């Protein structure tokens, strides 16, 4: 049985070999219209980056927010996030497709979506005052060890996820908080990886639904059973993290990929934006970047690369059960053991 378990674990992690795990939402599509999101890997280097609907974040490595930051401002919309300067207009009941890059996303874990009413312009709201209510949430779908997760569905659909704005939602300006939580290292404290992404939406409709929300700093705690959890077990009963889903809403709408037929710029409060054009394709590809970990002194193995020998790139896999690739990290990275089944090249 132990050997079988080891083999299954190795198989589950094979997808991560040579593949990186960081990412961001590159764009959203609403009713066939493409809206650009914030790209943390390129926009910071532009003298005049475009005004978009996605909140800025200081995660140049497409990184994550760790559980030890759950009670700080980074959990709201990612590291040092600041308000997007524009928004997209949507109707209550619309579905929104979110496109993650780079491809593919290799980690298991849940996907959750929240909304928060800005009670004014989302472009100027204080993020620490936003109160989020959950509008969808999918975790472990079937199987175990590690099983079929929401993030497997995302990969199947070209790294996209579809969320629906509640049909009866009250008209207003909202922040959509979309989040992947990677659990490949969640069996150890501070091992889960949160990837929150925020977007400004101006929602119109005739409904009156205005659910009660909670501050982002109250969404999760380090010891929550859906955060600190060993997913490499054959008898996992997974508990979704965060507050309860708004009553009457489905945990998810039908998932599937779709192409944009037009593009639109962000609408700026007081005028500007909303120009659109026909788009021949909404697809994009980028080179991958990897998933980091928070190393401890006991988990770091410092090694020197032999001249001419194979090395692993920053954030690539460098060890673990069943792994047979390079075990030496390209300088200045070091190989860090996350658990018995996975080790990764991270910055010193």
Automatic annotation (TrEMBL):
- Record bears the keyword Repeat: no
Any single GO BP term? cellulose catabolic process
Can you list the GO cellular component terms from the UniProt entry? Answer: extracellular region
Signal peptide bounds: 1-21
For activity, the cofactor(s) needed are: Cu(2+)
Region Disordered: which residues? 262-310
Q: Name one Pfam family in it.
A: AA9
Q: Where in the cell is it found?
A: Secreted
UniProt keyword annotation of Secreted present:
yes
* Molecular function as annotated in GO: cellulose binding; metal ion binding; monooxygenase activity
Question: Keywords in UniProt for this one?
Answer: Carbohydrate metabolism, Cellulose degradation, Copper, Disulfide bond, Metal-binding, Monooxygenase, Oxidoreductase, Polysaccharide degradation, Secreted, Signal
Low complexity composition bias: residue spans: 275-307
Q: What is its EC number?
A: 1.14.99.56
> Catalyses which reaction?
[(1->4)-beta-D-glucosyl]n+m + reduced acceptor + O2 = 4-dehydro-beta-D-glucosyl-[(1->4)-beta-D-glucosyl]n-1 + [(1->4)-beta-D-glucosyl]m + acceptor + H2O
Please give the InterPro entries that the UniProt record associates with this protein: AA9, AA9_LPMO, CBD, CBD_sf
Every copy of the CBM1 domain together lies at 310-346
Q: Which family does it belong to?
A: Belongs to the polysaccharide monooxygenase AA9 family.
Protein name (record): lytic cellulose monooxygenase (C4-dehydrogenating)
